[in-house]
């Protein structure tokens, strides 16, 4: 992998961890355990993800998140609990992927990975808070299932084609920004319309 490929893979993986940290960890770990993901020398640090204990915790987290994320307001509570964990997980993934001898570059990778995961988490949490205001429960299930499918598919593409990972990272950043702005507009419209008219 070239340095550009590694940075792109780190960015896309960190962003996806902001949506589904447990699922990203589980898929990556299983891929390593069963040889689906041949690790180049610079990614050997990620081998820890194939540890049975790590896989068991990731599987439990994936199972719990799958159901919690589809129930209105439970999903927002789940997002609140993971507001620190997802960025930290994204930062650690980026740090493991971008293997650099320079400590300054390692710190930069850690900060950028955490920032990318936090941005994705903030966009997801904001959008889901807006969806929770809808009176019917179907929208939560549809949006959550879409996130599940998108995370798994984009992670597989990022692993198989590191060049596409850069495009994915940029698209996810744009989508995240759009989700945050859209959620703010919806919330402003809903709460703004409830104000008493000024005399």
Give the beta-strand count. Answer: 0
Beta-strand residue percentage? under 5%
Shape: globular
**What does the radius of gyration come to?**
18 Å
Q: How many individual helices?
A: 7
Helix amount: over 70%
Q: List low-pLDDT spans.
A: none
Distance from first to last alpha carbon:
66 Å
Secondary-structure element string: HHHHHHH
Number of domains: 1
- The average pLDDT value, as a whole number, equals 83
Give the structural class. mainly alpha
Major sheet size, sense and barrel closure: none
Please describe what this structure looks like.
- With 199 residues, the chain is mainly α.
- It has one domain (3-186).
- It contains seven helices and no strands.
- The protein has helices spanning 3-33, 52-68, 74-81, 85-97, 103-131, 138-160, 162-192.
- Helix 1 (3-33) packs across helix 4, helix 3 (74-81) runs antiparallel to helix 5 and helix 5 (103-131) packs across helix 7 (162-192).
- The mean pLDDT is 83.
């Amino acid at each position: 992998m070239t340095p550009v490929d590694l940075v792109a893979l780190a960015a896309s993986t960190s962003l996806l961890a902001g949506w589904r940290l447990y699922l990203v960890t589980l898929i990556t770990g299983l891929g390593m355990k069963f040889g689906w993901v041949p690790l180049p020398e610079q990614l050997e640090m990620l081998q820890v993800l194939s540890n049975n204990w790590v896989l068991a915790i990731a599987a439990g987290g994936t199972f719990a998140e799958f159901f919690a994320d589809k129930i209105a307001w439970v999903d927002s509570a789940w997002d609140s609990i993971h507001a620190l964990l997802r960025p930290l997980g994204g930062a650690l993934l980026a740090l493991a992927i971008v293997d650099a001898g320079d400590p300054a570059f390692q710190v930069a990778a850690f900060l950028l990975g955490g920032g990318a995961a936090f941005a994705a988490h903030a966009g997801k949490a904001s959008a889901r808070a807006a969806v929770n205001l809808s009176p019917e429960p179907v929208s939560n299930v549809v949006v959550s299932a879409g996130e599940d499918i998108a995370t798994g598919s984009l992670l597989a593409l990022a692993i198989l084609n590191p060049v596409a990972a850069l495009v994915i990272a940029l698209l996810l950043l744009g989508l995240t920004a759009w989700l945050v702005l859209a959620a703010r507009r919806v919330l402003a419209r809903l709460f703004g319309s409830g104000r008493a008219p000024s005399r």
